[in-house]
Specification:
Number of strands: 10
Strand order of the largest sheet: 3-4-2-1-5
CATH architecture of the largest domain: 3-Layer(aba) Sandwich
Number of domains: 2
Structural class: alpha+beta
CATH topology of the largest domain: Trna Endonuclease, Chain: A, domain 1
Radius of gyration: 17 Å
CATH class of the largest domain: Alpha Beta
Helix content: 25-40%
Distance between the termini: 50 Å
Number of helices: 5
Oligomer: single chain
């Protein structure tokens, strides 16, 4: 893909781009964004990832380019857990997996096995990002496990430390 940057607009809780050859190609190749009514809608974590990778220029409603640090501040206002979620998103994308939001499943993300694109097959995992300093009760842990079990996906707990490194724990139900 060329060095052309897709122009996108930060609006409320999402980032939108016109459906152009470039944005469509990025979607077809790597499943960035979702096609919605002639536009491509990116989640906030996708927006930052593509901004870092120099694939997107994100502008505000006054047509002014948003700097990366300002984008992060805006995103944190919308999603208090944004920074932890972003570290997990970036790590999984950098490992070659397609990762998408999973709010309708009751999770933060869904992850597809390598080589699988959304629509071709189901996601293999649901992912819950957790800051290492955060307390997770047995009730919370059990609820996350139930969500994974009921959606027939594997549960990945993604623990993010203070340096932004991510450690993954896969949790499964076992019948002895």
């Amino acid at each position: 893909m060329s060095e052309y940057r897709i122009k996108a607009v930060f609006s409320r809780e999402k980032v939108f781009a016109e459906e152009t050859n470039e944005s469509r190609e990025l979607y077809e190749q790597s499943r960035f964004g979702e096609l919605k009514e002639g536009k491509i809608q990116y989640s906030l974590v996708e927006g930052l990832y593509l901004l870092e990778k120099k694939k997107l220029d994100i502008i505000d409603n006054k047509n002014k380019k948003i700097k990366q640090e300002d984008y992060i501040k805006k995103a944190k206002k919308v999603e208090p857990n944004f920074w932890v979620r972003y570290h997990v998103y970036r790590d999984i994308r950098n490992r070659g997996y397609i990762i998408k939001t999973a709010l309708k499943f009751g999770a933060d993300f869904r992850v597809y096995d390598r080589g699988i694109k959304p629509g071709e097959d189901h996601a293999k995992w649901i992912v819950f990002p957790v800051n290492e300093g955060e307390t997770l009760t047995w009730y919370d842990f059990s609820a996350k496990n139930r969500v994974a079990h009921s959606t027939r996906k594997r549960l990945l707990l993604a623990i993010v430390d203070d340096e932004g490194d991510v450690t993954y724990y896969e949790v499964r139900w076992v019948r002895p």
